[in-house]
Amino acid sequence: MDWNDYDAALFDLDGVITPTAEVHMRAWAQMFGDFLKERGIEEPYTDDDYYTYVDGKPRYEGVRSFLASRGIELPEGDPGDAPSSLSVAGLGNRKNVDFEQILETDGVEPYPGSVALVDALVERGTKMAIVSSSRNAKPVLRAAKMIDFFPVIVDGAVAGERGLAGKPQPDTFLDAAEQLGVPKERAVVFEDALSGVAAGHAGDFGLVVGVDRGVGADKLLENGADVVVKDLKELA
């Protein structure tokens, strides 16, 4: 790709800048594993479930999607539900507690290749933003010592406050581009999740780059990626 064709880079966070996708996967597996065990359900929660029903979606939507796949119905609840509550919101909050505990215990380091690309874009003067479904984007960026590179952060909390639809809708990416003052045709979307590349495609951005961290290049291309890379250093 020729960076002269673009003025902004819109990065998903988990799985693109930082390997917090792994932390999220562990937290989801711990939460859903405990939940299924509590209900006496023998069919386990798997990584395929994560990629199909959870990856890239807002937290409560991920809970809702997985439960529907198993034919399990729970009340919606509300964001103030305790993590012990048997509701969609309660399970989502339980997952967040597990995530915070794992992050505090293990920390997080950004992908070296992603750091290389960010450094190269700083030198070029390319504008950058984080667009994440996670409500933990800022703590993760601080832990990774990367927050100063991104003057615009549109995460799950911001989306909720502004009433922006989550991925696979393009609203959060469009909002980030608007905040940066860059037309969508001059912005590049970087995503590792199927719902994320679908959002980039739906928003008709200049380029949608799929980052294959395990979901598979074919699936990323099928869902809206224009190109797929294994590591962002390839584009630095």
Blueprint (SSEs and pairs):
Blueprint: E1 8-11, H1 20-38, H2 47-54, H3 59-69, H4 88-106, H5 112-124, E2 127-131, H6 137-143, E3 152-154, H7 156-162, H8 171-180, E4 187-191, H9 194-202, E5 207-211, H10 217-222, E6 227-229
Parallel strand pairs: 1-2, 1-4, 2-3, 4-5, 5-6
Explained architecture:
Its EC number is 5.4.2.6. Belongs to the HAD-like hydrolase superfamily. CbbY/CbbZ/Gph/YieH family. It catalyses: beta-D-glucose 1-phosphate = beta-D-glucose 6-phosphate. Its cofactor is Mg(2+). Pfam families: Hydrolase. This protein has 236 residues and is of the alpha/beta class. The chain folds into two domains: 3-19 and 108-235, HAD superfamily/HAD-like (Rossmann fold, 3-Layer(aba) Sandwich), CATH 3.40.50.1000; 22-106. 46% of the residues lie in helices and 11% in strands. It is built from ten helices and six strands. The protein has helices at 20-38, 47-54, 59-69, 88-106, 112-124, 137-143, 156-162, 171-180, 194-202, 217-222; strands at 8-11, 127-131, 152-154, 187-191, 207-211, 227-229. A six-stranded parallel beta sheet has the order 3-2-1-4-5-6, with helices on both faces. Helix 1 (20-38) packs across helix 4 and helix 3 crosses helix 4. The mean pLDDT is 95.
Provide a brief overview of the structure.
The chain is of the alpha/beta class and 236 residues long.
Anisotropy-based shape: globular
CATH architecture of the largest domain: 3-Layer(aba) Sandwich
Return the string of H and E elements: EHHHHHEHEHHEHEHE
- Read across the widest sheet, the strand sequence of neighbours is 3-2-1-4-5-6
CATH superfamily of the largest domain: HAD superfamily/HAD-like
Reported for the largest beta sheet, the result is:
6 strands, parallel
The rounded distance between the terminal residues' Cα atoms is 10 Å
**What name does CATH use for the topology of the largest domain?**
Rossmann fold
- The total of helices stands at 10
Mean pLDDT: 95
What is the alpha-carbon Rg in Å?
Answer: 17 Å
Beta-strand percent range: 5-15%
The domain tally reads 2
Which structural class should the secondary elements be placed in? Answer: alpha/beta
Helix content: 40-55%
Care to count the β-strands? Answer: 6
Q: Which stretches are poorly predicted, pLDDT < 50 over at least 5 residues? A: none
CATH class descriptor of the largest domain: Alpha Beta
What oligomeric arrangement do these chains adopt? Answer: single chain
